[in-house]
Amino acid sequence: MRKVVLLAILVVASASMIFAQDRPKPEFFAGFSIDSIDTGIDQSGVFVQNSDNRVAGYGFDTSATGFFHKNIGIEGNFDGHFRTKTFNIGTAAAGPFTPVETKFRDFNFLAGPHVKFTTSNAKVSPYLHALLGGNHSSVRGTTTGVSVSDSETDFALKIGGGIDFGMSDHVGLRLSADYNPVFERANNTLGSDNRTRNDGVFSVGLVFK
Fold this sequence. Notes:
single chain; Porin; eight-stranded antiparallel beta barrel; 1 helix
C-alpha cells in the first residue's frame, strides 16, 4: 500500500513539474514609443499656418502578458505620449495668425488577448493583439498670457502587433505597430462633436521573459 501511495505521489509530482515547464512564462515589455496623433485640426474650422493634421507625440509603452496556453495570453498595456508645439492659428486662410503654445498629453490603459506565433527561427516570434480600454488626453493652449485647457477620458482600442527578436533566453528586442482609434465624445469646452481620433503607435524596446 505504501509503495502505491509513493508511486502516486511521484506521478503527480512529475506531472506538475512537466506542466510547469511547458507553461510559458509571463512577458514584460518597456520601450520608447511614438504616437502619430490625429489632432482634428482639419475639422476645427481654424487655419494653422505651420502644421498639418498630425502631430508626433513621444513617450513610453509598457505591457505585461500572462499566458494560459502555449501561444495565447491576456495582455495589460499602458502607454503615455507628450508633445509641446507652437501653432500659428488664424480664423482666415490669409491670416492674421497668432502663435499658440500647445501642450498635448495622451495616455492609454488597455487589456485584451495576445497571440504569439512560432517560426522556423526560434529567436523570432511575431505576435498579434487586440486591446480595449480607455484613453485619457489633455491639451493646454497658451497665448499672450491667456490659457485654455481641457481633458477627457474616452473608449479606445489598440489593434496590431509586432515581432520579438531573442537576444538571450530571457531578453529580447521588440518592434511593434498599432492602430489606436479613440472614440471622442462631444466636447462643450472646445466646441467639438463626436469623432474617431485615428492615432498610430509605434514602439521599440526590451521584452523580458
